[in-house]
UniProtKB/TrEMBL annotation:
<dbReference type="InterPro" id="IPR002110">
    <property type="entry name" value="Ankyrin_rpt"/>
</dbReference>
<dbReference type="InterPro" id="IPR036770">
    <property type="entry name" value="Ankyrin_rpt-contain_sf"/>
</dbReference>
<keyword id="KW-0677">Repeat</keyword>
<protein>
    <submittedName>
        <fullName>Uncharacterized protein</fullName>
    </submittedName>
</protein>
<keyword id="KW-0040">ANK repeat</keyword>
<dbReference type="Pfam" id="PF12796">
    <property type="entry name" value="Ank_2"/>
</dbReference>
Amino acid sequence: MMCEASPAADDNSETPQHQFKTQYNEPLHRLLTDEMWVHILTLCTNIHVRQVCRRFCKLYDIALADKREIATSDAKYVTQYARGQTVALVFQRLYDGSACQTLLWACARYGTADMVFVHTDGFQNVHTEDLNRMLCESAYQGNIAVVQLLLNESRTDPSAKAFDTMVGDDNERFPVQSTDTEELKCQYYLNALSAACEGGHMVVVDLLLADSRVDPTIGDECCALVSASVKGHADVVARLLEQVTVDPSVCENAPIAWASENGHTDVVQLLLRDSRVNPAQRDNHAITWACLNGHVDVAEVLLRDIRVDPSWDGNAIIGALGGAEEDLEVIQLLLQDTCVDPSANENAALINACEGGCIKIMEALLADERVDPSEVPNILASASRHGYTDLVEKLLLDERVDPSGADNLAIKMASQNGHLEVVDRLLNYARVDPCAENNKAVRLACKEGRLAVVDRLLKDTRVDPSSKRNYAIQYASEMGHVSVVDRLLQDCRVDPSDKANCAVRMACWHGHVHVVQRLLQDERVDPSAEANSALRIATDEGHVDVVEMLMRDKKVVDALASEMGAIDITGDLDH
């Protein structure tokens, strides 16, 4: 609907619109659409209108300089400054429902009753749907006067579900400008009472409950009681429970489920006083999520109810809790319940606690005689893989834990991931064999470049870095770990020429010039082996610096000479 502009407003030289026209040139003014004017004129007078216009012009100038399409709104900027009052000229200039959405929202949130009524011309030009939206927003914000004014408007329906087109948090909500259906699907429907309950405004709640048109049971999972329970407004919950039509077990006991999940102990206690409430419904959702989120007070209240089963679904609760240190109190609380088996789900709790590095939870679980760490073969390996030194020590002190379990997997994992302290602790136990699986621990450490771990392992006389035909130095050369290569070459058992000088060939293939240089310093290395394979590989891969280094090696030069020009190195390099 389009409204004609007031002649008086157009003739007024002091209007914001006139100030804008005189402040800036005509071409720029013509760029402003009616929607842009709406957003400019909904700003409050906390700052001078001329400053507001200047701010918007900067936005448009930037858009023009970048040759982009000028945005029709800057809603966040509007919401930042829309405080106290709006401009009546907007409704004289334009009203079509969507274009004035920001204005309507600003009225609902910040306006006084008189201002809203005057600036909307007694609501005569406001669509019914927008009236309901304004009511929801003013109810959510606790704007009592505006709520009362809107309730007195005959076209307002306080029981209607108004599509929530506001986004952002409680302090910075602003209208959605998109009309994209998919984007709007992420929003939800509210009615005025649900909005007031979500905002926790008791006076507004009482105003709405006193209106015969308001039904507190409407809304399913967005109903008033659920909204209040989710946010933890105990006083609002108590008031709603006084209504005979309100069922606290609505939507399969959604109120207590959400209150428990969010840690609202007082709301949970209020709901449990009603015999219709079943805290075990929804597969014990209430206790499950109270525990998962570490709400120990809520968990204590729920566990006093005999219907609550903390061991439901094979103790999935305690199994999931093991990964969070802050949930120690909840773990201790659950362990006191005779229904709970901490070893359930194949010791899931112990496994999760170990994976999360939660030593206090591990101590609590291991202190329970029902928990046997030996039933989890890789429990020590898991702690070792992550480098949890304190956990490793704790497990090693338990006689039931075999540090050499799974073919010494613990020291292999610690070596591969470079956890020196863990490797050192494990080597203090005679049962740990660092040379298990053909010295795999040292090979893994060499491949990953864990110099400190390699050095520690080589100090153990049982470790042989030349096992499996010197794979250790070949891995280190392939991966370019020159410091590891240097440490291995200091061990007389290591032969860098093994497997037809595989080490230098792998280094040449990957272009690790520093590794090649270090290997060539060892007389046992022959870079000309396999018909100058190292040179051919480096040439094919385009590693010029490696080729140049090889061409300075006497063995390579002699081999080339003996081949009588079989390879035209210069041509290959140019190619």
